[in-house]
Amino acid sequence: FHVPLGWTYAYLRRFHNTGRAVLVPTQVVQRDLQEHGFRNVRLWSRGVDHRMFYPREGERLDGKPPIFLYVGRVAVEKNIDAFLQLDLPGTKWVVGEGPEMERIRKQYPDARFLGVLTQDELAKVYSGADVFVFPSKTDTFGLVLIEALACGCPVAAYPVTGPLDVIGDSPAGALDHDLKAACLRALQIPRSVALAHARKFTWEAASKQFLDHLRKAVREGVAARAGH
Length: 228
Prior knowledge:
Layout: H1 5-16, E1 22-24, H2 27-35, E2 41-43, E3 67-71, H3 80-84, E4 91-95, H4 101-107, E5 112-115, H5 119-128, E6 131-134, H6 143-150, E7 155-157, H7 163-166, E8 173-175, H8 179-186, H9 191-198, H10 203-227
């Protein structure tokens, strides 16, 4: 049974518009919901723990350089094939697990696979890579983008929701509809530039943003009751 998209939006509007605010992670999502009639859509960005994700000096991944890294679920929706099929110099590394892992291992035998890592291990891997490649076209944010940047690893991605919101016009990453071109350009980005951009994304800033929205919602609620 197929439910028309318009019905779905109508139900979601009815539910969410009863609240004081709808918090979303990116401006792209904010604009999309507003265009579909959602009210009081407010931006609540994300951050990472910079005490965990920071450059680890001396880390280096095995394999011929440069090192191109993917971190995430190994699944169709992550578009990982778009990365692994690229003709790039050096070595490709994959961190993560998922339903496509068996096929991916067989189809791309030259890639290196690390499975699931702890946050500390992951920070070391980011620090040892030359470029973090984000091939997904469907993520609404992409927290791994910030994790990589916080470890000084430049980003290569498509100019879509997620990368556009995290990287935008910043020189910390290369966004291109040609993912290979983005990867090669990202190789030229100094790690210090990636690190500087990552400092904008902290949990302290995200928490302050959330509390500001909460206080505003409380004030609006009090004013509405007083008006009655």
